[in-house]
């Protein structure tokens, strides 16, 4: 049987943000309860081109398929008018080993599952009345974090901090066009928001721990390789609750791992994010909470299965 090949148009027709949020939430819960198989990621760096690539695999127990995903990020691409991220997902039968489908998603599913995981973590761990969101970064993921969190809770103000004044202003204009009250902010002001999400490929912390206010929540999603670092160890030292999407991955190459190696936290001071999504979060009043997300292969598998499970509607006929 010839594998199905789905491009981004077919994928967008087959799945909605609501289905993505459900698939990612269920996969994180399954992962927290040990119902997944996730080998360590493979990492490649291309310093001369300002790029990197990771290969992730995963399987949710009892499901018919597993996936192997290639995802790349080349951070100088926007200057050449090219997208930063690219990739594809290979869907393989967990019963026969046959390749069932190639999802030529060009990084779309990775972007969506990252946005969903970040939004779910931020919504679950932030104060119920938190309404001011700050994003560090000006790329696609910064925009998606705002859009997807807004699906889960109302946002009053969005603060954007980026290295490029022009790109910061451009993202604010995009967010305003989507109905958000968005404006540029300094790193110190952004770090003082109710909710903070970092979405950069930084190799050194992008905010100061003492600028984060008591009662705030911070989600870091950019540190997905050993050489990257967005959140300072001192922030983890201040946190009353730390969530990780995968304990070992976050120890190996997440911001949580940097904090542990710096002596700011113990190596078992984190809680699986899926456990927090599976029940009410015990959030002490005035506490700082932190989520460190490195991207889990089981989420890719769950999302690919959702794409293949949903029949894509017929494309409209041209007239």
Attribute tags:
Rossmann fold; single chain; eight-stranded parallel beta sheet; seven-stranded mixed beta sheet; 319 residues; 2 domains; disordered C terminus; ornithine cyclodeaminase, domain 1
Find the CATH topology of the largest domain.
Rossmann fold
Rounded radius of gyration (Å): 19 Å
Number of strand segments: 15
CATH class of the largest domain: Alpha Beta
- Decide which structural class fits the backbone: alpha/beta
What distance separates the N and C termini?
34 Å
The CATH architecture assignment of the largest domain turns out to be 3-Layer(aba) Sandwich
Give a structural overview.
The protein is of the alpha/beta class. It contains eleven helices and 15 strands. It has two domains: 118 residues, ornithine cyclodeaminase, domain 1 (2-Layer Sandwich); 175 residues, Rossmann fold, CATH 3.40.50. The strands form two sheets. It has an eight-stranded parallel sheet with strand order 10-9-8-11-12-15-13-14. Strands 1, 2, 3, 4, 5, 6 and 7 form a seven-stranded mixed sheet that branches. It starts with a strand and ends in a 10-residue tail after the last helix. The C terminus is likely disordered.
